[in-house]
Design brief:
This protein has ten helices and ten strands. It is an alpha+beta fold and 382 residues long. It binds copper (II) ion.
Length: 382
């Protein structure tokens, strides 16, 4: 009801404004003033209004900067993030300087040279010197920014130390994150969405998981066969037969996945650790590998200046080095409750807003202690 009233009020307001304009036009017609007639007084008023707007506009820039500056991210908590921040500051610095010089001039000159009956505009067809300057200066500045940006990019994407990095998988699905550590061998086992079953929510292909999943399936298959032999009703029997066919297909998919996975990868999966928190040791490279179960998600770690899409059916990854622990960042931000987060940055469905994961950066000792306390996933399964 309220919405309807608002719509009606808006329509009435628009009609009222149109009528006022119409009356104004008619009044001018009676007075013999043409719409194209602009007096010096009109230009004066418009010029002053524009200047006032310009002053308010510039003031709003300073007020907003002062008021919301604290909402910007704190210092970068990763090694490559420092370079990204420098690039960002350089670009923003240049933009702000140019803005602060050009905008006041623009508003002031618009006011100073406002229309007057006794003044005509000067016609300039071209000016080589001015044109060379306003083409060359931005071209040089942009070239420097782009070349510097490309250099930063190749530095950020540098993978020469990938061999030493701690391998961690971040798995996305609607609407949560799961983390898989590679265990002592630092080698993640293979995974496939078709292998998902029971507790194996990530579809990790491991022989122990296979045994659990197959024995569960075999039980159900045996039950279904028994039901079929006892069932008198033909339609009900057909339904059970369809269910049986599905389970048998699943069984052969599971078997095919396990037999086609190399032995060393099967072994690599056995010590994988699956948890719901991302712990990272400070000053050690991490190789994050991303997967998604359903739709495109995006793993965003704002404090580390890291973001990577998680695409179903595709593996994406990123290597970086955290440099500030959670404790140190609490001091840095003067916020005792500060926590690093990993957020989904791709609108992926109804509960997208709630798709976040706690990230903890700690000393290597604390990290080793924590990881030792986690039971390996498949060991816990048996
Ligand atoms: Cu998401």
């Amino acid at each position: 009801m309220t919405e309807l009233l608002i719509i009606v009020a808006l329509v009435v307001a628009v009609i009222a404004i149109a009528q006022v304009v119409r009356i104004f036009e008619l009044a001018n017609k009676i007075k013999g003033i043409k719409e194209s007639d602009v007096t010096d007084k009109d230009n004066d008023t418009q010029g002053k209004l524009l200047l006032t707007f310009g002053v308010l506009f510039m003031a709003s820039f300073f007020i907003m900067t002062a008021k919301w500056n604290h909402l910007l991210l704190p210092v970068s908590a990763s090694e490559h993030g420092v370079d990204i921040d420098f690039l960002m500051s350089l670009s923003m610095g240049l933009i702000i300087v140019v803005f602060l010089i050009t905008q006041p001039i623009l508003f002031y000159l618009s006011y100073k040279y406002r229309g007057r009956k006794d003044r005509t505009a000067t016609f300039i067809s071209h000016n080589d010197k001015a044109e060379i300057i306003w083409t060359a200066v931005p071209a040089i500045v942009l070239t420097v920014l782009i070349v510097y940006g490309l250099q930063t990019w190749s530095k950020v994407m540098d993978r020469s130390n990938i061999g030493d990095a701690l391998v961690v998988e971040v798995y996305a699905r609607q609407f949560d994150w799961t983390v898989r550590y590679a265990g002592a061998d630092n080698n993640l086992g293979a995974a496939n969405v078709r292998f998902i079953g029971g507790l194996n929510t990530l579809g990790v292909i491991a022989e122990s998981a296979y045994k659990t999943q197959i024995s569960g399936l075999d039980n159900n298959i045996a039950k279904a066969k028994e039901q079929i032999s006892e069932q008198q009703n033909a339609i009900k029997r057909l339904k059970i037969e369809a269910r049986l066919a599905k389970m048998e297909a699943k069984r052969s998919t599971f078997t095919a996945l396990v037999t086609s996975t190399p032995k060393d990868l099967l072994a690599a999966a056995e010590d994988d650790i699956v948890v719901k928190e991302l712990h990272l040791p400070v000053n050690k490279s991490v190789h994050l590998k991303f997967r998604s179960q359903d739709v495109i998600h995006s793993a965003y770690l704002p404090h580390f200046r890291v973001q990577m899409n998680c695409v179903p059916g595709m593996n994406t990854d990123f290597v970086f080095k955290p440099t500030i622990t959670t404790e140190e960042m609490r001091v840095e931000t003067a916020n005792e409750e500060f926590e690093y987060v990993l957020l989904c940055n791709k609108i992926c469905g109804a509960a997208h807003y709630n798709m976040q994961l706690k990230v903890i950066v700690e000393s290597e000792e604390d990290y080793n202690k924590w990881i030792a306390e986690q039971t390996d996933f498949f060991g816990a399964n048996n």
